[in-house]
Specification:
Layout (H helix, E strand, L loop, with lengths): L9 H9 L5 E5 L5 H8 L5 E6 L2 H14 L5 E5 L12 E4 L4 H10 L9 E4 L5 H10 L2 E11 L2 E10 L8 H6 L3 H4 L2 H18 L5 H19 L5
Parallel strand pairs: 1-2, 1-4, 2-3, 4-5
Antiparallel strand pairs: 5-7, 6-7
Helix pairs in contact: 4-5, 8-9
Bound molecules: S-adenosylmethionine (SAM).
C-alpha cells in the first residue's frame, strides 16, 4: 500500500528544489526519510540512499520507506556519515545537521567525494566554516535560499563541483554570495536581527581582539542592510 504523498516543511521544500533532476541522491542524517520519499513520489529522482547513524531514527526511516512502497528505490543504511556511501551517488544532502558536523562528515571520507557533483546543506550555525570547507574541497556555491520557518532562519546552500566565482570574500563567506546579491526580504530581516545582536555585543566589556572582530562584522552587516557593500 503506497503512503499518502509526503508534504515537506518549507525548509525541506527549498532543499528539494535544489536537488538536480534524475540524480542519485544520498540523504545523510535522513531521520524520517521525507526528503527522498517526496522527491521520488514527485518523479524528480528515481533512486536514493537514506543514511542514519542512530537506531531510533534508522528504524523510523526504514518504517516510512517501507510504508511508502518505495523500498526498491530507497536503500536504507545504518552507518556513520559517508562510511557506507553507495557507488554511483552523485548528490549529497546533509540537512538538519550542525555546520561543524557537516564539515566532519565530509572530511572523514574525502575519497568518497570523487563522484559527488552536488552537495546541499542547511547548517544552522558555522555557515562560514561550511562555505570555506566545501569551497576548499573543490566546489562553488551555485544556489542559496533563506527560509524563515517556526521562528528560525535557515540558509540552504547548494554547492556544485568546480571553481566558478571564487575566491569568496568576507561578506560572501558570512552572508552568502548569492543571498546577498538577491537580497530577499528574509535575508534582509536576518541581516537586521544580526546587526542588532552584534551591536548589543559591542556594548559589553570585550577583549580588544573580540571587539575588533565584532566591529568588523557589525560594519559588514550595516553595509549589507543599506545595500552599499561591494558585490
Ligand atoms: C535533525 S535530523 C534532520 C533530519 C532531516 N535531514 C531534515 O533535515 O529534516 C538530523 C539527523 O541526522 C542524524 N545524524 C547525525 N549525525 C549523523 C552521522 N554522522 N551520520 C548519519 N546520520 C547522522 C541524526 O541521528 C538525526 O536523525
Amino acid at each position: 500500500m503506497a503512503l499518502r504523498k509526503v508534504k515537506l516543511s518549507a525548509r525541506l521544500e527549498a532543499v528539494a528544489k535544489m536537488v538536480p533532476e534524475g540524480t542519485y541522491l544520498a540523504d545523510v542524517g535522513s531521520d524520517h526519510a521525507y526528503l527522498p520519499i517526496s522527491l521520488i513520489q514527485r518523479g524528480i529522482i528515481s533512486y536514493a540512499q537514506a543514511i542514519e547513524n542512530k537506531m531510533g531514527p534508522f528504524l523510523r526511516m526504514q518504517g516510512n520507506v517501507d510504508d511508502s512502497g518505495l523500498s526498491s528505490h530507497i536503500d536504507v543504511s545504518l552507518s556513520d556519515g559517508l562510511d557506507k556511501l553507495n557507488d554511483g551517488v552523485q548528490t549529497l544532502c546533509l540537512c538538519g545537521l550542525g555546520g561543524m558536523l557537516t564539515c566532519q562528515i565530509l572530511e572523514k571520507n574525502l575519497d568518497k567525494l570523487d563522484n559527488i557533483k552536488t552537495i546541499i546543506c542547511d547548517p544552522h550555525h558555522d555557515l562560514v566554516a561550511v562555505r570555506e570547507k566545501i569551497s576548499a574541497l573543490g566546489y562553488h556555491i551555485s544556489d542559496e535560499k533563506m527560509v524563515y520557518e517556526n521562528k528560525i532562519y535557515y540558509t540552504i546552500i547548494r554547492f556544485d563541483k568546480g571553481d566558478l566565482n571564487k575566491p569568496y570574500n568576507y561578506h560572501d563567506l558570512h552572508f552568502g554570495p548569492i543571498a546577498r546579491r538577491e537580497r530577499s526580504q528574509v535575508f534582509l530581516d536576518w541581516i537586521e536581527i544580526n546587526r542588532k545582536a552584534v551591536g548589543e555585543q559591542l556594548n559589553k566589556n570585550l577583549s580588544p581582539e573580540r571587539k575588533e572582530a565584532y566591529l568588523r562584522l557589525y560594519r559588514a552587516l550595516a553595509s549589507e542592510a543599506k545595500g552599499t557593500a561591494s558585490k
